C-alpha cells in the first residue's frame, strides 16, 4: 500500500508506505514527547477558548459582518484543534500507525487549515476596504456578504483539499511525478504568495491607520485584534508550509518525518488556540483592566464593528459636504 494517508494541516507532509515507515525513525525523543504533551495542553485551552467564542457569538452577540467571519474562523479552529487532539492521543498511546486507517483526519486537518487561511484573508482585506472606502462599507455593501463569502470560502477550502489529497496517488508522490510537483508548488504558492501577502498588506494598512492622526481618536481594539491575529497566523503556519516543500524535494530526509510532523502540528495548534486569547486580552485593555469578564472583553472588541463603520461613514459624508 503506497497511497499517502495523512497530510499535516495541508503541509503535504504525508505518510509513506509501510516498508519505508518501518525503515524510518519510529521512536520519539524526550523533547518530542514534551512537545506532544504541551501541544495536548494547548489544544485543551484552545478548545475551551474557541468554544466560548462560538457560544457568545452564536447566542449573546448581535450578528455583524465581522462577527460572522469570526464565527466561521472559530469553527475552523475548533475542528482543527479537536482533530489534532485525536492525533496527539494516538501518539501518546503508541497507536500512531492506526492514523493511516483514518483518512478523515487528513481531510479535516486540510479543510480547516484552508478555511482558516481564506477566512482570515477575507477579514483583513474587508476591514482594510472598510477604512479605504468607508461610505461603500456602510451604505453599499451587500447585507449578507459575510455569510455568502464565508460559504464560498468553505467550498473553496474543500476543493483545495481535494486537490491537495487526491491530486496524486502515493506512487506518483513517491516518484515525484510532474502532476504532484505542480500540485504541491501550486498550493504552496497559493498560500505563501497570494493569501499570505494579501493578509500582510491589508494588516500593514490597518496598522498604519491605527497610528495616524485621523484615527487616533477612534477606539482601535478591532484593528489590533486583526493585526495580531494575522501576525500569529503568518508566524506559525508559514514554517509548516515551507517544511512540506523541503520534505517533498528530499531536503528533509524521511527519517525526520516524525520530528517534522510533531513540530508542524504544534505550530498549527498554537495558531488555532491563540485567537480567543487575543480577543480577550485586547478587549481587556483599558480602564477596567483585567477585571473585565470574558463576555465584556469580547463585547468591547466586536461592538466596534458597527460603531466604527458608522463613524467612518459619517466622517466621509462630512468631508464630502465640506468639499
Automatic annotation (TrEMBL):
GO molecular function: G protein-coupled receptor activity
Gene3D superfamilies, per database record: Rhodopsin 7-helix transmembrane proteins
GO cellular component: plasma membrane
Alphabetical keyword list: Cell membrane, G-protein coupled receptor, Membrane, Receptor, Transducer, Transmembrane, Transmembrane helix
Annotated membrane topology: Multi-pass membrane protein
Domain G-protein coupled receptors family 1 profile: 49-279
Signal peptide, first to last residue: none
Annotated localization: Cell membrane
Pfam families found in the cross-reference section: 7tm_1
Main location: membrane
Chain ranges passing through the membrane: 34-57, 69-92, 104-123, 144-163, 183-208, 220-238, 258-282
PROSITE patterns documented for this protein: G_PROTEIN_RECEP_F1_1 (PS00237), G_PROTEIN_RECEP_F1_2 (PS50262)
Similarity section: Belongs to the G-protein coupled receptor 1 family. Mas subfamily.
Protein name listed in UniProt: Proto-oncogene Mas-like
Lineage of the species this protein comes from: Eukaryota, Metazoa, Chordata, Craniata, Vertebrata
Amino acid at each position: 500500500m503506497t497511497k499517502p494517508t495523512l497530510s499535516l494541516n495541508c503541509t503535504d507532509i504525508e505518510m509513506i508506505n509501510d516498508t519505508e515507515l518501518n525503515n524510518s525513525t519510529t521512536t520519539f525523543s524526550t523533547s518530542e514527547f514534551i512537545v506532544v504533551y504541551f501541544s495536548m495542553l494547548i489544544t485543551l485551552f484552545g478548545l475551551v477558548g474557541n468554544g466560548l467564542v462560538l457560544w457568545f457569538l452564536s447566542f449573546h452577540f448581535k450578528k455583524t459582518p465581522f462577527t460572522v467571519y469570526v464565527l466561521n474562523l472559530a469553527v475552523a479552529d475548533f475542528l482543527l484543534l479537536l482533530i489534532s487532539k485525536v492525533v496527539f492521543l494516538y501518539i501518546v498511546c503508541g497507536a500512531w500507525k492506526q492514523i493511516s486507517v483514518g483518512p478523515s483526519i487528513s481531510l479535516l486537518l486540510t479543510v480547516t487549515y484552508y478555511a482558516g487561511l481564506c477566512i482570515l484573508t477575507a477579514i483583513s482585506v474587508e476591514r482594510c476596504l472598510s477604512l479605504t472606502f468607508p461610505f461603500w462599507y456602510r451604505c453599499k455593501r451587500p447585507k449578507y456578504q459575510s455569510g455568502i463569502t464565508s460559504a464560498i470560502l468553505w467550498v473553496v477550502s474543500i476543493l483545495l483539499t481535494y486537490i491537495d489529497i487526491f491530486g496524486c496517488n502515493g506512487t506518483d508522490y513517491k516518484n515525484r511525478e510532474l502532476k504532484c510537483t505542480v500540485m504541491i508548488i501550486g498550493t504552496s504558492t497559493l498560500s505563501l504568495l497570494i493569501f499570505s501577502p494579501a493578509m500582510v498588506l491589508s494588516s500593514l494598512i490597518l496598522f498604519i491607520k491605527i497610528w495616524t492622526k485621523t484615527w487616533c481618536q477612534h477606539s482601535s481594539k478591532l484593528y489590533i485584534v486583526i493585526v495580531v491575529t494575522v501576525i500569529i497566523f503568518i508566524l506559525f503556519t508559514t514554517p509548516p508550509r515551507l517544511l512540506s516543500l523541503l520534505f517533498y524535494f528530499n531536503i528533509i530526509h524521511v527519517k525526520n518525518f516524525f520530528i517534522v510532523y510533531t513540530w508542524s502540528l504544534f505550530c498549527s495548534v498554537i495558531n488555532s488556540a491563540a485567537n480567543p486569547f487575543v480577543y480577550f486580552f485586547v478587549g481587556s485593555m483599558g480602564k477596567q483592566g483585567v477585571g473585565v469578564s470574558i463576555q465584556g472583553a469580547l463585547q468591547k472588541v466586536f461592538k466596534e464593528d458597527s460603531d466604527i463603520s458608522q463613524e467612518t461613514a459619517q466622517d466621509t459624508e462630512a468631508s464630502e459636504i465640506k468639499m
